[in-house]
Specification:
The chain is mostly helical and 203 residues long. Helix 2 runs antiparallel to helix 3.
């Protein structure tokens, strides 16, 4: 067994075990950390498959941005995990059946003879890297779909912001223009009172 095959089995086993730990550990923070390990191990598998761009995107976007956000949210929320774990054992057989069916479908789709093969390079040219080839294909042959996807995502972001800023009756909204015009005299009042000794107050 050569080194790439050994590394593939090592990274794949780490990803599978850490993914199993995500749904089995009791602490939500530990689950998020195991999910980070799952993504990182999957990125290592992508590197072995010579898909450098997908591996870099997986690490930068999911591990570096999305999972950090999830970790902060989970750490700030006071989650009571006891009610969430009550029906876990009841749904475990169904989940195991679904997992077995998915595994059988993947074996039938890929073919059992392909599991022992070494990954081939997805680079058709063979001379440039995967990232350079993807960039050339994206900005030459698929530049119009790429621009359309960018416009659709921009419109979706604008619509989401517009929906959150709409005025609804019965809700309170902040006015920054009025907030910066507030004076100290309008909010704070200094009161001068005569001091009393402790002895006189007790009598």
């Amino acid at each position: 067994m050569d080194f790439p095959t050994l590394a593939f089995y090592l990274f794949a086993a780490t990803a599978a075990l850490s993914a199993l730990a995500v749904v089995t550990v009791r602490n939500p923070v530990h689950a998020v950390l195991f999910l980070v390990l799952t993504f990182f191990s999957s990125a290592c598998v992508w590197l072995l498959a010579e898909a450098e761009f997908l591996a870099i995107v997986l690490v930068l976007v999911y591990v570096g941005a999305v999972m950090v956000l999830f970790l902060f949210v989970v750490m700030m929320l006071d989650i009571n995990t006891a009610p969430l774990r009550e029906g876990f054992a009841r749904y475990l057989p169904v989940a195991a059946l679904v997992a077995i069916v998915m595994a059988v479908e993947m074996v039938v789709l890929l073919g059992s003879q392909r599991f022992g093969q070494v990954f081939d390079s997805p680079d058709p040219a063979g001379a440039i890297g995967n990232t350079a080839w993807l960039g050339q294909a994206l900005f030459t042959d698929f530049v119009i779909p790429f621009e359309l996807a960018a416009v659709i995502l921009t419109v979706a972001i604008v619509i989401a912001i517009a929906l959150t800023l709409r005025r609804r009756p019965g809700t309170k909204h902040q006015d920054p223009a009025l907030q910066v015009q507030v004076r100290r005299e309008d909010r704070v009042r200094l009161v001068k009172m005569k001091a009393e000794s402790t002895k006189e107050a007790s009598e």
